[in-house]
Amino acid sequence: MKKLKQVKEFVNKNIDVFHGNKLRIIQGLDLKKVLRKKNPYLFKAKNLTFAADLIKDILDAYLSSSEEKIFGDFLEDLAVFSARTTYNGRKSSATGIDLEFINHGVHYLVSVKSGPNWGNSSQQKKQETDFQTALRVLKQSKHSLNVQPVLGICYGRAKDTYKRGYLKLEGQSFWNLIGGSRDLYKDIVEPLGYNAKQHNDNFKRERDKIYNKLSREFILEFCAKDGSIQWDKFVEFNSGNL
User: Fold this and answer.
1) 57 vs 43: CA distance, rounded Å
2) Residue 11: what pLDDT?
3) Where residue 170 falls among pLDDT bands split at 50, 70, 90?
4) In 3D, which of 149, 185, 183, 180 has the Cα closest to residue 170?
5) Which of 80, 99, 131, 162 is the most exposed place for a label (fewest CB within 10 A)?
6) Phi, psi of 215 (to 5 degrees)
7) What is the DSSP string of the chain?
8) What is the dihedral of CA 13, 69, 58, 212, to 10 degrees?
9) How far is the first Cα of the chain from the last one, in angstroms, to the nearest whole number?
10) pTM score of the predicted model
11) Residue 159 pLDDT more than 80?
């Protein structure tokens, strides 16, 4: 079980990076830049009258979307590490390809996605093009090589499918491919909780400081002396352009 121990050690070490990146994202936020990207009419329609609630609503949504990307990057690194320890895999230099490894004479070109609801139609089309380009280049350099493009999705339970020239694997099937273990998708869960409470408590303390700071900035800029939100001023700041 040496391989599993290595995977757990990798998770334990690198989960710190995930939590650290979450903090850096909100620590670097500029309130006005964030407000310009949000829909002020939506907040008015939700009847948000408490400035702190409005700021929390905005920043929670911002953080949620950023968190998915940060954790997706972490899972991609974990997938590369798993393939490296199992099949001497490596991070690919090809555009749109995250991982390459050879197993039983098959050269796998893997693009890793964190979840099944990834990308719009243009991004999915580009992924197909990236697979075709990498496949063509690899076959030109090694004519007899059996190459298999794979779209690997870290969670989900859809059936394995083959379409448009690539194999799509979700959840257990994907982790089994890169790690050679039917249980790897479950084995990585336990170390993800490493010092989770400590990390989350620290993150909450720092997050609440930032929420308070940005709430104060919003009140000074967009609230009247009686404390009410000046929606016309907020809308003008967000959308006025003449």
Assistant:
1) 9
2) 80
3) very high
4) 185
5) 162
6) -65, -40
7) -HHHHHHHHHHHHHHHHHHHHHHHHHHT--HHHHHHTS-HHHHHHTT--SHHHHHHHHHHHHHHHHHHHHHHHHHHHHHHHHHHHHH--EE--STT--EEEEETTEEEEEEEESSSS---HHHHHHHHHHHHHHHHHHHHHSTT-EEEEEEEESS--PPPEEETTEEEEETHHHHHHHHS-TTHHHHTHHHHTTTHHHHHHHHHHHHHHHHHHHHHHHHHHHB-TTS-B-HHHHHHHHH---
8) 20
9) 66
10) 0.77
11) yes
The stretch 119-136 carries a mean pLDDT of 92
Do residues 132 and 95 touch, judged by C-beta distance below 8 A? no
Structure token pair of residue 108: 């796998």
d(CA 209, CA 2): 42
pLDDT given for residue 212 in this prediction: 93
